[in-house]
């Protein structure tokens, strides 16, 4: 019987964090990599006017989401977790993108118990409603807020744009395989300490 309920962000967590980069480079005649994105706010990170970035993102969002590559190992770990846990995908994507989102999950052969597109980065209410025991996220302030407000562990997928300090129940992981190792440790010991790296 499934007991634990995992809240899982989609973009930059299940999808590869560099998904936007080819679209940015083509649209803005740039030649950047993920390592160049040091802030979550793309307008600030790229020194592009916020209105121009917002308009571009609104137009390009469906194509980005349809073409986003899967993060390495996500399909294997999620398939394993699906047998053990409730997988509840909670995303800042807007509701009109639900069909594209579900099609992407179908194409990637990722099963889920729930997908919720809330149209906002504030995932606290959705996470409370879904009674999540653990959250997986790539946005630093989301991770901190969820960890502090819900008193749950949050796995923060390490990227160049989320390097600020975080409380101890926000645990940085490098990839999905490390996330799985951490979950196994947590289930066995109840300990939320980061993995010890040799």
TrEMBL record:
Family label: Belongs to the 5'(3')-deoxyribonucleotidase family.
UniProt EC number: 3.1.3.-
Protein name: Nucleotidase
PANTHER family on file: NUCLEOTIDASE YQFW-RELATED
The entry's keywords: Hydrolase
Broad class of enzyme this protein falls into: hydrolase
InterPro entries listed in its UniProt record: 5_3-deoxyribonucleotidase-like, HAD-like_sf, HAD_sf, Nucleotidase_putative
């Amino acid at each position: 019987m499934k007991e634990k309920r995992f809240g899982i962000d989609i973009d930059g967590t299940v999808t590869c964090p560099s998904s936007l980069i080819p679209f940015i480079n083509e649209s803005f005649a740039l030649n950047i990599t993920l390592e160049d994105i040091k802030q979550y706010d793309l307008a600030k990170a790229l020194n592009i006017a916020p209105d121009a970035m917002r308009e571009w993102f609104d137009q390009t969002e469906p194509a980005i989401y349809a073409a986003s590559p899967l993060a390495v190992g996500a399909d294997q770990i999620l398939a394993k977790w699906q047998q053990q846990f409730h997988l509840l995908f909670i995303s800042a994507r807007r509701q009109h993108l639900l069909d594209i989102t579900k099609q992407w999950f179908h194409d990637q052969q990722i099963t889920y118990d729930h997908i919720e597109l809330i149209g906002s980065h504030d995932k606290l209410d959705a996470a409370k409603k879904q009674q999540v025991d653990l959250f997986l996220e790539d946005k630093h302030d989301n991770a901190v807020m969820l960890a502090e407000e819900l008193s749950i562990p949050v796995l923060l997928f390490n990227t160049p744009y989320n390097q600020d300090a975080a409380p101890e129940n926000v645990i940085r992981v490098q990839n999905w395989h490390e996330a799985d190792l951490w979950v196994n440790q947590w289930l066995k010991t109840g300990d939320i300490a980061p993995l010890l790296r040799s």
